[in-house]
Structures are given as C-alpha cells and as structure tokens.
Write a structure and sequence with these properties.
This protein is mostly helical. The protein has eleven helices and no strands. The relative contact order is 0.13.
C-alpha cells in the first residue's frame, strides 16, 4: 500500500524553518501576525517532536534480536493475567476481508491527521485547553520514545501463536514503504492508542454536553484495530494508557507546586510591566486553569480566549 511518510531530516529542517518564521512574525508586534507566529511556533514544536521520534526509532539500547523473546514474554504474561487472546479476537474479523482492509488503512494513516487536526481545533477554538493538550502529547511521546529504546517485537512477528499479519496478507503494510522508515521493534507502548486517548481527553475537556463522552469510542476502536491487525498486544495499549494518565498527573502536580510556590508566606508578585501594580492573590491562591480570563479579550500573554462556550461542540 502506498504510504507517504516524512523522514527525520526533512522534518527537522521544516521545524527549524517554521521556528524562524514564527520568531520573525512574533517580532512584528502586529496582532494578526503575532497570532500567526504563535501558531507557527506550535507547528515547529510538533515537527521537531516528530523528527525526534523518527530519529530515535533508529536507535536502541539493546540488540533488536531480543525483541522477539520480550514479545514472547508479553504473550505469556497476558495468558497469566487471563486477558482475552489476540488470536480469538482476530479470528472474529478475519472472515470479513473488507473490514480487515479498513482496519489496516485505519492503522496506517489515521493517527497523524486526527491528532494534528485535534491540536489545530483546540488551538483555534479552545485556546485555554491547548497548553495542557500539547504538553500531554509531548510528555507521552517522549516517555514512549524512552521505553522504545528497548526493542519489543509486535505480535504479528511471533511464530506459533496463530496470529496473522493482516497488512502483509492484503498488501497494505507500511513497513518499508516509500518515505516511511518505521521501527518494527518499537511496539511497546502503542503510540496509536496513546494519541487516540489524548484526542478523546481533549474533546471531553474542551466540549460541553453529554455527547462529548462518545469521543472515548475513538481510543477503544483504536485499541481493537491494533490488536486485530496484530500490531500490538493488549499490554502495549495498557501501558500507553498509563503513560497518558501519568502525563496528566505530572501536569496536575506541577500546577499544584506552582500555586504553593506563588502563595507561600512572604512571596511578593513581580510586576509584569513597568508601572503595573501587582494585585495579591486571595489566600490559598488560584489554579492557573481555574482563574477567570477577561471577558471577550485575550489573556495576559495575548492568547485568544477559550471559545468553548460559544461553539457548538
């Protein structure tokens, strides 16, 4: 299956160029150009993160030959934990070729566009939530890269289990395709599942209304797809979920520490600009996310207000 990817060198060059453009636009001090510069800066960060991910995929702390024994260990660990067999789940779908081909396509191309689209949507319409979503992506992806330095093979590479490499069977494998140099021994954890969960959390956090909880169907379907296509074990997805929740917990803890630091006895707020008088915070302080923004206007950093309440979300 044709798959157009982006190697780490072009991604790094694009990140550097976009970062320079962002710096130039922000220095103009014109509102629209500054807003475009901030958007470009976020794009540069994501391109840089992608370049790092691609670059790190070519390294490992241990020989790749150990990837298969580690995958075999995960397989036996799941049996001890009485998790559903990936073979049994896959056999429910194998008699339906069109569905399998759809799952292969889902796995190959959907995760990047959905994540990038979600980040753009949050940045443009729910700016107050953007920093948390972006930081969660960075923390989760960085933690995943560290774990992936230890090679672990995907279940489709295990012989004797009865699992079928569905992408290879239908000629839809992305591995070795033009422009895409993915590391097949980086199955633990499942970045697909982690990114899908971050997307769902972003929708649930930014939107209002009961239907927003339907976003959880996306990570659930993604977990099913990566298992049915034999690209990941259940445990690969479970570890990804733990890492995402850990990234959120780290941010919450950092926010609490910042509030305690700013509200410690004897602390004096530093004026943000000459002639500005610092207004002391109430006892106990305000969390950065719970502090109200000025109605109808940008915040102190010039960011647009969160428009979650004014959009049909």
């Amino acid at each position: 299956m044709p798959h157009v990817g982006l190697a780490w060198q072009p991604a790094a060059i694009i990140a550097a160029c976009v970062a320079v453009l962002a710096a130039v636009l922000i220095r103009t001090r014109r509102a629209r150009l500054v807003a475009a510069g901030r958007f470009a800066g976020e794009a540069a960060l994501l391109f840089g993160l992608f370049a790092l991910w691609q670059y790190a995929g070519s390294f490992s702390l241990l020989p790749s030959s150990g990837g298969l024994p580690r995958a075999r260990w995960l397989w036996h660990a799941e049996r001890l934990l009485h998790l559903p067999s990936e073979v049994s789940v896959q056999r429910l779908f194998l008699p339906h070729p069109l569905l399998i081909e759809a799952f292969n396509l889902y796995y190959a191309v959907l995760h990047f566009p959905v994540l990038i689209g979600t980040l753009i949507w949050v940045f443009g319409w729910h700016r107050g939530h953007y920093r948390q979503v972006r930081t969660t992506v960075v923390l989760f992806t960085g933690a995943s890269l560290l774990i992936q330095f230890i090679p672990v093979a995907p279940p489709r590479m295990l012989y004797g289990t009865g699992l079928v490499d569905t992408a290879a069977r239908y000629g839809q494998s992305v591995y070795g395709s033009l422009g895409f140099d993915a590391d097949q021994y980086s199955a633990m954890p499942s970045v697909h599942v982690g990114w899908a969960l971050i997307v769902a959390i972003a929708v649930i956090t930014a939107c209002r209304g009961r239907w927003r909880w339907a976003a959880l169907l996306y990570p659930a379907l993604t977990l099913l797809v990566v298992v049915v296509t034999a690209n990941h074990f259940w445990l690969d997805g479970a570890v990804a979920i733990v890492l995402v929740l850990g990234a959120l917990g780290v941010q919450r803890a950092a926010g609490s520490l910042r509030v305690r630091w700013l509200t410690r006895p004897g602390h004096t707020a530093v004026p943000s600009s000459p002639g500005h008088t610092a207004v002391p915070e109430p006892a106990g302080g305000l969390d950065a996310q719970s502090a109200p923004e000025p109605a109808g206007g940008p915040d102190a950093e010039g960011r647009a207000p969160d428009r979650a309440g004014s959009t049909a979300c």
